[in-house]
Amino acid sequence: xxLIGLMVSLTIPFSLILAGTRMGFITYxxxxxxxxxxxxxxxxxxxxxxxxxxxxxxxxxxxxxNYQMRETSLEGEDLDRAMEYALSGxxxxxxNKQYLFVTRENEYVVxxxxxxxxxxxxxxxxxxxxxxxxxxxxxxxxxxxxxxxxTAEFAKNMRAQLSPLFEATEKVAxxxxxxxxxxxxxxxxxxxxxxxxxMKNNLKSSLEKQWSAE
Length: 214
Hints:
The protein is an alpha+beta fold.
């Protein structure tokens, strides 16, 4: 049961991401890379870089021929890595973000593109984690939910199987031996109930003999 629940909890997020990809709501993992590579000759030939429509997820760094920054849409560590790539050609160790170097007539352009799926909708792109991260989150939530539900169901069944023993002990505590001990579907519990029933019957017989002797 647990295995089936976990399989379902993993399958549902994958199915949602796959459906979103097929419906065009989510890009394929190599979309940004393919788009960036297709733009290289266009960027090299277009005089004004602002005329080039960069795909979502792509950012740039423009350098003059002396590798001095002119303009950029990058910041922080991404900017440092782009500059390092322009100067040394060192490949970024972050597999999710890679760079392309484009030579123009009077400047260089470093394109940063994202490896992985992305939301096409700009609002989702800006306010939600990437589909891969969202997938892991959903998988984690589903697995936790399955474990909680199955644990609660298991505890409920255990209480149901133990209830005859609780009821029997309550009767004995009330000094009532005129009752039938219930049964359990779990063998170990049933063995205990049978032993308890024998003890109850023996105690009842012993008391009846004692009362008769008096």
